[in-house]
Specification:
The complex is a heterodimer of chains A (about 110) and B (about 120). Chain A contains no helices and twelve strands. Chain A is about 0% helix and about 55% strand. In chain A, strands 2, 5, 6, 10, 11 and 12 form a six-stranded mixed β-sheet that branches. Chain B is mainly beta and about 120 residues long. Chain B is about 0% helix and about 55% strand. In chain B, the strands form two sheets. In chain B, strands 2, 4, 5, 6, 9, 10 and 11 form a seven-stranded mixed β-sheet that branches. In chain B, a hairpin with a 2-residue loop joins strand 5 and strand 6. The chains are: A mainly beta (about 110), B mainly beta (about 120). At the A-B interface, strand 5, strand 6 and strand 10 of A face loops of B.
Chain lengths: ~110, ~120
């Protein structure tokens, strides 16, 4: 069964600094996608970034980038130049043809 | 807003009440989902529908009854709930169930409190 583990329930970062959120997953499938979603307080969950398992190049979206290590089944999210608006709960998600699984989430606090 | 709407946004109900949660997506998606989000288990998949057909039911108690009359609407009918059912209920949609490239679009959720 596919599992997604986010080992950091809470993280904090100083405004303008960089923070990395960890995610590991377990799967026997070879074709899948990985996602990071952001859920701000009292607001809708939205997609931050996605990574296709077949692509070796790490995905980047402005200040958000991932470190995808397929052999290690690791998919961390790096947020550069953190802003107050980045404060939210972040979910790592795995999706294949047969399964969609979310991690338990990491609550990120941004300190001014 | 991401094109997925949910009503009501807040609901307080007694254990003997019957109520329904509504979800509507305006994105032309074929798959819709119900999730339960609580402090104890942050995101639990409850039901999955693809083209109005239920394809997944993750051991959800029968006091939760989903309905998908068409690909744009999804309901969750509630009856004789328990206090531990209090949670945020999220609806989501995706373009296709089996296409792993497609992300899910979430609604704002219904905050349910069972008294």
């Amino acid at each position: 069964a596919q599992t997604v583990t986010q080992s950091q329930p809470e993280m904090s970062v100083q405004e303008a600094e960089t923070v990395t959120l960890s995610c590991t997953y377990d799967t026997s499938e070879s074709d899948y996608y990985l996602f990071w979603y952001k859920q701000p307080p009292s607001r809708q969950m939205i997609l931050v970034i996605r990574q296709e398992a077949y692509k070796q190049q790490n995905a980047t979206e402005n200040r958000f980038s991932v470190n995808f290590q397929k052999a290690a089944k690791s998919f961390s999210l790096k947020i550069s130049d953190s802003q107050l608006g980045d404060a939210a709960m972040y979910f790592c998600a795995y999706r294949s043809e047969s399964k969609s699984t979310f991690g338990d989430g990491t609550t990120l606090t941004v300190k001014p | 807003e991401t094109g997925v709407t949910q009503t009501p946004r807040h609901l307080v109900m007694g254990m003997t009440n019957k109520k329904s949660l509504k979800c509507e997506q305006h994105l032309g998606h074929n798959a819709m989902y119900w999730y339960k989000q609580s402090a104890k288990k942050p995101l639990e998949l409850m039901f999955v529908y693809s083209l109005e057909e239920r394809v997944e039911n993750n051991s959800v108690p029968s006091r939760f009854s989903p309905e998908c009359p068409n690909s744009s609407h999804l309901f969750l009918h509630l009856h004789t709930l328990q206090p531990e059912d209090s949670a945020l209920y999220l609806c989501a949609s995706s373009q296709d169930l089996l296409a792993e490239a497609y992300e899910q679009y979430f609604g704002p959720g219904t905050r349910l409190t069972v008294t």
